[in-house]
């Protein structure tokens, strides 16, 4: 998905991610109503346009207004990109997107495979209401697929599989069924920032960042992303084991997101799925996610799967699947794709890895030439780049300004704050794009960093709002909707 | 909305509209959701709960003592309140179990027997109108039975609600009738699915224009739906709804099903605890969808089957009834944010005249209510003499910024497995807020392409699909209604939708919802799935919805089983009536 660019930032004052919308858990309707209006009436310190939130003319409920506002803000970069997308012929000066983690390298292979005749199949059951966990034929295929590619010591079982329309839906459903409103998952930072939105939109669950202490919030689980996003790191079996034992000790659920598991392109990197462990410390609280969005470069296909031995969790997630189902015809195609082990092993994966590796090599060499430090271990689609030396004061405001300068020079990146990175100045570069776009993107990056970009440097035109009057949307959401009184925002 | 899976299961629907913290979808049988505990004795369950209770209490005190100084006052209070609620809940569960244990020996049973007057109130009127339910009555047997240590309370609630509502449907899924392989399997005349045109759809979907793989289809796209699909939906609705001016693709949001659209609308139009008005009987899925994520209540506007001074026809919806329900709910402190209408109506098959529709819309405008109109059956009107008027065909809407239309392909095209629902709203703010949820309800690019191709080909739709579809609907409807007439079963004779609303009161003695439920189960025992009136929040016991949009051989077999069950039921009634009336509560009235 995409990172969450936000308008302006200051360093976070607390450890909590946002809780959006009000506390939905209480059944006293009258109380709630009063509470909402009270909260909305509170003057929010430093909000650019509070009218948007407290408007009486709105047709939306207060949570509706909040959600919309948050969405508008979060989507800014992505929307800007969509309005001015680069196209070699039609819009050569459009924006190059090195911000969204998508694999655009293997469309030719996929298109050929998905056009084969075995994919075109229609039968009555595919057109009718399904088993909401996903068609059995697909769950069987998923179980076999994961058994093989995760190197599971025992065959995985189709009844432990629940299929949904994307990883976001899965995060949302898990948050809803595992946590009460206002509870939290622990997550090591920096992490894929959109998860914040996924767990809070319906679930109203927060994230507690590992680097900070999470006093006062009940932590229900731990989210691990392996291979990690944005670091491109993989956990060793020892590390994994250690985290799982830690979680067990504290009776935490562990959600392991392995959405990049087949995108480990460096052979020397030994990747271990959590499903490959001989024995899970707490199998009933270990829930694994996988999807085709990244590993098969099909983010638009909307397919994700949960694997959990916990029947209650599987059933509860399946109870929500009515709202997160995917088309029967697509389920059929997915089963065909996952079944085709020959194509995956002999055609798709080798080619995909070779292309990822080449793109990775190109971008890392560019960065080295610029003398820019970066982290990358040979997994995923991105490089975690250290641009701290370009921020004289080392603040998140400067990080934001630099991000805007990139955008003005028509290249979209993701900045560290969107991953809740503690230090200002880190950026995520996605390299899994076609060579011509990648080259142009890197050229535009270089222009900005070497001060040769077309756009004016300083003061930035869009910086007319004073950064010091702004706070991050995460903080703002917290202010509006945290159960307690708003914590004072430190000015400056 | 999309299918009545839950109604189809025929479980009492009282639950779904109840206070949403805990639901009394009490049934005559314990819901088999508590895999963990169901098979254990009640004492084991009590023991487990006691242990849980003890642990919670000790945590509670630890927290009281250790954190007082550290925490902000409010958060502290919050934490204490949460724990209090949990303690309360556990205590109630134990009381419930003890009650049921006392009543039925050691077997786990319905904690609150249905003879209880509260049960009647619940069945008759929907609990949201009842006064202050005491804490114990709020607990269902499911709640007591389903105690999972891994799920959150709301997770337990969701899971139990779902399972209680899909028992019948799940039984059907596991044991479907097949003419060769499983002749003794279930016939499903309960789920509103159009199975009449699978041949046409299969053919159409296999045509070459359907298969297209483009880069854009496989990548992240506009979350509101691919622009090409939204354009097509706008054109399609302009044409089939006879809109006076072309509809704007920017007002369209497409999601993976109409239940998703409804759920998201409830999220963005209401705050938790707020409510929508909805005339009964109504599609039970609304209750599920409004409660599950959004925690929005549905306030029923009860309609009656009898013709009276106010009712010129059965189940007539009038502005007076709307107004009365609204004011009554307001008196109880409910904040009503909108009105939900289904047109053509499900389960009645009624179609609103432009005049009535206008009156409802004006009523809504008078009270600043949003109107959500579900027109999912709009092309399933099979009598040519009847014209359906979409709300989008009106020259001017009384309150266009508060009128939101839902349509999908599940019913009209018989492709419920496709997962497609569309919202049309003039209100940009609403459209944009709904979009914020769309990544949780998105449709595969490949499916979006196919849908676009499907909707685009109006020639095929007008010349091939619709004439055949309607002809087959008419035929099936004729077959079923002839059978009903021969059995002298009264039914609501309409010409739209996939179902007929039938009255089986005469087979119930006494005429109560318990008896209705028993009859429903008798159908199930004969491998026939129907939906009972209670799932539609019908005020009067004895109504069922019978879906006829199935292929004739299955339909015939279904009707044969239907007749068998009723014959058996009749015989039982004869025997029952010979016995002296013991402690039977008298009643065959719709009134509680």
Automatic annotation (TrEMBL), chain A:
**What's the source species for this entry?**
Callithrix jacchus
Q: Which key words tag this protein in UniProt?
A: Pyridoxal phosphate
Give residue ranges for domain Aminotransferase class I/classII large: 121-431
- Protein name as catalogued: 1-aminocyclopropane-1-carboxylate synthase homolog (inactive)
> CDD domains from the entry?
AAT_like
What gene name is given for the protein in this entry?
Answer: ACCS
Please give a single GO biological process term from the UniProt record. amino acid metabolic process
InterPro entries under this entry? Answer: Aminotransferase_I/II_large, Ethylene_sulfur-biosynth, PyrdxlP-dep_Trfase, PyrdxlP-dep_Trfase_major, PyrdxlP-dep_Trfase_small
Which superkingdom is the protein from? Answer: Eukaryota
Question: Lineage of the native species?
Answer: Eukaryota, Metazoa, Chordata, Craniata, Vertebrata
Any matching Pfam family: Aminotran_1_2
Give this protein's Gene Ontology molecular function annotations. Answer: pyridoxal phosphate binding; transaminase activity
Automatic annotation (TrEMBL), chain B:
Name the GO terms of the biological process aspect: amino acid metabolic process
Q: Look up keyword Disulfide bond and say if it applies.
A: no
Region (Disordered), start-end ranges: 1-34
Biased-composition ranges for Polar residues? 14-26
Aminotransferase class I/classII large domain sequence ranges: 187-549
The entry's keywords: Pyridoxal phosphate
GO MF assignments: pyridoxal phosphate binding; transaminase activity
Q: Does the keyword Iron-sulfur apply?
A: no
InterPro entries in the cross-refs = Aminotransferase_I/II_large, Ethylene_sulfur-biosynth, PyrdxlP-dep_Trfase, PyrdxlP-dep_Trfase_major, PyrdxlP-dep_Trfase_small
What name does UniProt use for this protein? Answer: Aminotransferase class I/classII large domain-containing protein
């Amino acid at each position: 998905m995409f990172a969450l660019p936000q308008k302006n930032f200051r360093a976070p004052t607390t450890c909590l991610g946002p809780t959006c919308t009000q506390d939905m858990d209480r059944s006293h309707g009258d109380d709630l109503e009063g509470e909402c209006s009270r909260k909305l009436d509170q003057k929010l310190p430093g909000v650019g346009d509070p009218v948007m939130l407290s408007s009486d003319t709105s047709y939306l409920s207060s949570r509706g207004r909040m959600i919309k506002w948050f969405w508008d803000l979060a989507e800014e970069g992505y929307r800007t990109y969509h309005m001015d997308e680069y196209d070699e012929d039609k819009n050569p000066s459009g924006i190059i997107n090195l911000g969204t983690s998508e694999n655009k390298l293997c469309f030719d292979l996929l298109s050929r495979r998905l056009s084969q005749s075995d994919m075109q199949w229609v039968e009555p059951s595919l057109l009718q209401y399904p088993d909401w966990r996903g068609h059995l034929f697909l769950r069987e295929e998923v179980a076999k697929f994961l058994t093989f590619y995760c190197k599971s010591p025992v065959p995985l079982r189709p009844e432990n599989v629940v299929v949904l329309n994307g990883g976001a839906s899965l995060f949302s459903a898990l948050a809803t069924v595992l946590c009460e409103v206002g509870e939290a998952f622990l997550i090591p930072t920096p992490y894929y920032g959109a998860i914040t939105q996924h767990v809070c939109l319906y679930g109203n669950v927060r994230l507690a960042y590992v680097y900070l202490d999470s006093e006062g919030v009940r932590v229900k689980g731990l989210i691990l992303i392996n291979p990690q996003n944005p670091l491109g790191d993989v956990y060793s079996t020892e590390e994994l084991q250690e985290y799982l034992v830690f979680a067990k000790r504290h009776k935490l659920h562990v959600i392991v997101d392995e959405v990049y598991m087949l995108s480990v392109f460096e052979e020397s990197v030994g990747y271990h799925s959590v499903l490959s462990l001989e024995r899970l410390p707490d199998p009933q609280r270990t829930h694994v996610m996988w999807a085709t969005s990244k590993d098969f470069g099909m983010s638009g296909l909307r397919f994700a799967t949960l694997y959990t031995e916990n029947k209650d969790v599987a059933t509860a997630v399946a109870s929500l699947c009515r709202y997160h189902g995917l088309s029967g015809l697509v389920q059929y195609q997915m089963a065909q794709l996952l079944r085709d082990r020959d194509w995956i092993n002999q055609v798709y994966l080798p080619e995909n890895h070779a292309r990822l590796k080449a793109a990775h090599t190109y971008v890392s060499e560019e960065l080295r030439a610029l003398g820019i430090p970066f982290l990358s271990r040979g997994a995923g689609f991105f490089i975690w780049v250290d641009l701290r030396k370009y921020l004289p004061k080392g603040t998140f405001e400067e990080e934001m300004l630099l991000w805007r300068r990139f955008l003005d020079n028509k290249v979209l990146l993701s900045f560290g704050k969107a991953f809740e990175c503690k230090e200002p100045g880190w950026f995520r570069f996605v390299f899994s794009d076609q060579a011509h776009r990648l080259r142009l993107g890197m050229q535009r990056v270089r222009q900005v960093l070497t001060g040769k970009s077309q756009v004016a440097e300083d003061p930035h035109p869009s910086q007319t709002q004073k950064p010091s009057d702004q706070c991050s949307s995460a903080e703002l959401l917290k202010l509006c909707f945290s159960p307690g009184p708003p914590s004072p925002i430190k000015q400056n | 909305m999309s299918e009545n899976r839950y109604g189809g299961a025929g479980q009492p629907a009282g639950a779904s509209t109840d206070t949403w913290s805990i639901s009394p979808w009490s049934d005559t049988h314990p819901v088999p959701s508590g895999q963990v505990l169901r098979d254990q004795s009640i004492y084991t369950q009590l023991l487990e709960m006691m242990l849980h209770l003890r642990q919670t209490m000790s945590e509670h005190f630890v927290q009281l003592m250790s954190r007082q100084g550290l925490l902000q006052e409010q958060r502290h209070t919050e934490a204490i309140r949460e724990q209090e609620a949990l303690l309360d809940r556990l205590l109630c569960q134990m009381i419930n179990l003890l009650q049921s244990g006392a009543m039925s020996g050691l077997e786990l049973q319905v904690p609150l027997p249905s003879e209880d007057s509260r049960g009647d109130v619940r069945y008759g009127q929907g609990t949201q109108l009842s006064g202050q339910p005491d804490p114990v009555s709020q607990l269902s047997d499911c709640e007591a039975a389903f105690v999972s240590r891994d799920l959150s309370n709301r997770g337990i609630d969701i899971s139990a609600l779902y399972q209680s509502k899909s028992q019948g449907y799940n039984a059907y899924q596991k044991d479907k009738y097949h003419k060769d392989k499983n002749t003794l399997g279930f016939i499903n005349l309960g789920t509103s699915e159009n199975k009449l045109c699978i041949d046409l759809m299969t053919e159409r979907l296999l045509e070459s224009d359907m298969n297209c793989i483009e880069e854009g289809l496989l990548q992240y796209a506009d979350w509101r739906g691919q622009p090409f699909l939204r354009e097509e939906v706008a054109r399609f609705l302009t044409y089939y709804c006879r809109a006076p001016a072309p509809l704007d693709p920017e007002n369209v949001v497409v999601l993976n099903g109409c239940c998703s659209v409804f759920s998201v609308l409830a999220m963005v139009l209401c705050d938790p605890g707020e409510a929508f008005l909805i005339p009964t009987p109504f599609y039970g899925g609304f209750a599920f969808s409004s409660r599950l994520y959004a925690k929005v209540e549905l306030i029923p506007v009860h309609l009656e089957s009898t013709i009276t001074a106010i009712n010129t026809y059965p189940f007539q919806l009038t502005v007076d009834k709307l107004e009365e329900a609204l004011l009554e709910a307001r008196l109880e402190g409910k904040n009503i944010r909108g009105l939900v209408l289904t047109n053509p109506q499900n389960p009645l098959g009624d179609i609103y005249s432009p005049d009535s529709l206008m009156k409802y819309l004006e009523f809504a405008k008078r009270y600043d209510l949003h109107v959500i109109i579900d027109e999912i059956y709009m092309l399933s009107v099979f009598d040519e003499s009847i014209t359906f008027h979409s709300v989008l065909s009106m020259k001017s809407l009384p309150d266009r910024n508060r009128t939101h239309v839902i349509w999908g392909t599940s019913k009209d095209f018989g492709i419920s497995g496709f997962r497609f629902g569309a919202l049309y709203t003039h209100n940009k703010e609403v459209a944009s807020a709904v979009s914020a949820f769309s990544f949780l309800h998105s449709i595969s690019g490949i499916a979006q392409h196919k849908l676009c191709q499907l909707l685009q080909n109006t020639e095929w739709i007008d010349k091939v699909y619709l004439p055949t579809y309607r002809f087959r609907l008419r035929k099936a409807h004729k077959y079923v209604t002839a059978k009903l007439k021969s059995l002298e079963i009264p039914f609501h004779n309409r010409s739209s939708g996939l179902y007929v609303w039938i009255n089986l009161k005469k087979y119930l003695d006494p005429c109560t919802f318990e008896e209705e439920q028993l009859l429903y189960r008798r159908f199930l025992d004969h491998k026939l799935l129907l939906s009972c009136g209670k799932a539609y929040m019908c005020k009067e016991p004895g109504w069922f919805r019978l879906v006829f949009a199935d292929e004739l051989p299955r339909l015939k077999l279904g009707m044969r089983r239907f007749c068998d069950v009723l014959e058996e039921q009749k015989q039982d009634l004869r025997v029952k009536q010979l016995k002296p009336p013991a402690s039977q509560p008298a009643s065959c009235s719709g009134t509680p």
